[in-house]
Amino acid sequence: MTWVWTRPLLGRRGSPDWTCQRGAGSEGKVGMAPPKKGSLPKPLPEGFILSDSQKKKWRLGKVIGQGGFGLIYLASEDVGRPVASDTAFVIKMEYLENGPLFTELKFYQRAAKPDKIKSWKRSRRLDFLGIPTYWGAGLAEYDNGSYRFMVIDRLGSDLQKVCERSGGRMKKATVLQLGQRLVSVLEYIHENEYVHADIKAANLLLGYRNPEQVYLADYGLSYRYCPAGVHKEYKECPKKGHNGTIEYTSLDAHRGLAPSRRGDLQILGFCLLHWLCGTLPWDNVLKDPIQVQKAKESLMDHLPHSVKHLSANTEEVAKFLLHVKTLAYQEKPDYQHLQDLLSSGASEGLDFSLSTGPTAGPLNESPEMSSSDEGPEQPTTSPKAEPVDTEEKDEMRTRPVPARYIRGPPLSKPQGAKRADSALPTSSRSLRPRARITYKEHTSEEAEAEEEEEEAEEEEESEDEARPQPISARYLRGPPIGPRPEQV
Ligand SMILES: Nc1ncnc2c1ncn2[C@@H]1O[C@H](COP(=O)(O)OP(=O)(O)OP(=O)(O)O)[C@@H](O)[C@H]1O
């Protein structure tokens, strides 16, 4: 039996209303003590000294943030005095048995070492790359609890908050500028065998000292799509469908495919659209992942008109999504071309002041359009969904929520419409708080074995004393490797 973290659909982010429920599989594993009720760890005292896997010491300061599983502390390498309020480091800490920090740590250790980032920047002639620097990690014991921690750059406010403060939407030039920068970050991540799989404003943090810099953070859902250069195979697995943040997650994720590069870009496209319009066509059906999937399929099927129809200022994003639609599952995107598509209206810097651009388009029309509405001809190379077994779909629909890990802040409830085809926005045009539901698939033994195998092959695992507790005690996400090579 394994343990699944659950939280009510609209439960408060970081609130103690999590429960731990038993799930199927992995019978009889060692280390099966259920994680403590309420996943947020007990805060460690200010001034606590931690030693990382390289024996470097770190001093804990105040808690400055909390996520679904862990706390963020200010931290300092100068252990002899209290941590200054303007310190450049933070420590992210979770209970040892929790999975997301382990996943995030593996990303940083494999893909975001300072040297690697430095040489990438040199080779690309970049002044800046928006990935926080990783400074170390380790394990700690406190008051009978075991913890994992990771030291990274201290960052500033997240874009969700910034955006809410400035009226909900962003200026078009800023959205396009953000899009370009994120394509550049994604290219780096993708070239290092990873995808992020959870791009959204809440995971974009401004620099602490320089708010002109934007970092893509939170790699808790990141996925190694191409371990040792071998891309995961195309395998739809409806039972693993809808992973990610429901508003933005890719159609691949809805279908239960392992995340890949095109999925990240599609997620980014949905984010850009949201930031521009302040709303998305599936806002009103967020509680029903299948309806969300259908609304996204409809939008992608009817590009570019479906996007242009939402607002007058979406031409570049429509082109962006149209290009993403042409990508095959394993295809390497043309990052330069994607950046070029966004470049025409992009600003130099970022301006988060109130957006006065056109609001989203007609409110009472369906995103599903007749073929005569479609505008320019569609590319013929667009990937087609494999037929989905309706029985499996029904099973997904009725599957009890506790079978998955669900996370998301309360924010406001989506309003109104019951059907995807009437899912056009009805009220607010702003990026106001909303239900953001993240589905995270429950651990599978294949995925765990796969991770173990990959790790065993790596020579660079000197920091592996930070390995997790017995596998079954932690939460892991990841689809199994499919036997069926199916390039779509
Ligand atoms: N490097 C950082 N510097 C400063 N604040 C940070 C840093 N990383 C995260 N935060 C802030 O701390 C809070 C918690 O972040 P964290 O990444 O742990 O969780 P989350 O993304 O909010 O939720 P989840 O754990 O469910 O993914 C957020 O408000 C985030 O903006």
From TrEMBL:
<feature type="domain" description="Protein kinase">
    <location>
        <begin position="58"/>
        <end position="342"/>
    </location>
</feature>
<comment type="similarity">
    <text>Belongs to the protein kinase superfamily.</text>
</comment>
<keyword id="KW-0723">Serine/threonine-protein kinase</keyword>
<keyword id="KW-0067">ATP-binding</keyword>
<feature type="region of interest" description="Disordered">
    <location>
        <begin position="16"/>
        <end position="38"/>
    </location>
</feature>
<dbReference type="GO" id="GO:0002118">
    <property type="term" value="P:aggressive behavior"/>
</dbReference>
<dbReference type="InterPro" id="IPR017441">
    <property type="entry name" value="Protein_kinase_ATP_BS"/>
</dbReference>
<dbReference type="Pfam" id="PF00069">
    <property type="entry name" value="Pkinase"/>
</dbReference>
<feature type="compositionally biased region" description="Acidic residues">
    <location>
        <begin position="446"/>
        <end position="464"/>
    </location>
</feature>
<feature type="compositionally biased region" description="Polar residues">
    <location>
        <begin position="367"/>
        <end position="383"/>
    </location>
</feature>
<dbReference type="GO" id="GO:0004674">
    <property type="term" value="F:protein serine/threonine kinase activity"/>
</dbReference>
<dbReference type="InterPro" id="IPR050235">
    <property type="entry name" value="CK1_Ser-Thr_kinase"/>
</dbReference>
<keyword id="KW-0547">Nucleotide-binding</keyword>
<dbReference type="GO" id="GO:0035176">
    <property type="term" value="P:social behavior"/>
</dbReference>
<feature type="region of interest" description="Disordered">
    <location>
        <begin position="349"/>
        <end position="488"/>
    </location>
</feature>
<feature type="binding site">
    <location>
        <position position="92"/>
    </location>
    <ligand>
        <name>ATP</name>
    </ligand>
</feature>
<dbReference type="InterPro" id="IPR011009">
    <property type="entry name" value="Kinase-like_dom_sf"/>
</dbReference>
<dbReference type="InterPro" id="IPR000719">
    <property type="entry name" value="Prot_kinase_dom"/>
</dbReference>
<dbReference type="InterPro" id="IPR008271">
    <property type="entry name" value="Ser/Thr_kinase_AS"/>
</dbReference>
<dbReference type="GO" id="GO:0005524">
    <property type="term" value="F:ATP binding"/>
</dbReference>
<protein>
    <recommendedName>
        <fullName>non-specific serine/threonine protein kinase</fullName>
        <ecNumber>2.7.11.1</ecNumber>
    </recommendedName>
</protein>
<keyword id="KW-0808">Transferase</keyword>
<keyword id="KW-0418">Kinase</keyword>
